[in-house]
């Protein structure tokens, strides 16, 4: 089950790299505006905030990738702790999103599902 958790963590990291790309690289493009439901004016006005937020997502992804590598080279305790910290933070961010704006429930579900499954699988695997 630990392996399943690590695969899910890797997928969560990839998703957060994609979110970084949308927020920090292509925020004002039609594609990002469709994903986030913003107008060109809103995207222009929030570009700096989105740029910053994108890097939070990237840093979470980096933590998760480093933790997977640590587990792979035999540092289970440290790697598992970092996986749980990284994906737990991703999950917490998804919960904050939906609690702050119910209209963002779909986005929160998309953002939080892989991290939630990671936490569940990893904890079950560590307890086994």
Describe the structure.
This protein has 128 residues and is mostly helical. The chain has one domain (2-127). The chain is 87% helix and 0% strand. The protein has six helices and no strands. The chain has helices at 2-25, 30-36, 40-45, 47-72, 76-100, 105-127. Helix 4 runs antiparallel to helix 5 (76-100). The longest helix has 26 residues, at 47-72. It is elongated.
Looking at this protein, list some descriptive labels.
128 residues, mainly alpha, DUF1304, transmembrane, transmembrane helix, membrane
Q: Helices, strands, pairings?
A:
Blueprint: H1 2-25, H2 30-36, H3 40-45, H4 47-72, H5 76-100, H6 105-127
Helix pairs in contact: 1-4, 1-6, 4-5, 5-6
Transmembrane segments: 6-27, 55-74, 80-100, 107-127
Protein name: Transmembrane protein
Organism: Cellulomonas flavigena (strain ATCC 482 / DSM 20109 / BCRC 11376 / JCM 18109 / NBRC 3775 / NCIMB 8073 / NRS 134)
Number of strands: 0
Oligomer: single chain
Runs in which pLDDT lies below 50 for 5 or more consecutive residues are none
Helix coverage percent: over 70%
**What is the N-to-C order of secondary-structure elements (H for helix, E for strand)?**
HHHHHH
- Largest sheet geometry: none
Which whole number gives the mean pLDDT?
96
Radius of gyration: 16 Å
First and last CA, distance: 8 Å
* Structural class determined from secondary elements: mainly alpha
Described by the principal axes of the CA atoms, the overall outline is elongated
Whole-number count of domains: 1
Number of helices in the DSSP assignment: 6
Report strand %. Answer: under 5%
Organism: Cellulomonas flavigena (strain ATCC 482 / DSM 20109 / BCRC 11376 / JCM 18109 / NBRC 3775 / NCIMB 8073 / NRS 134)
Keywords: Membrane, Transmembrane, Transmembrane helix
Protein name: Transmembrane protein
Transmembrane segments: 6-27, 55-74, 80-100, 107-127
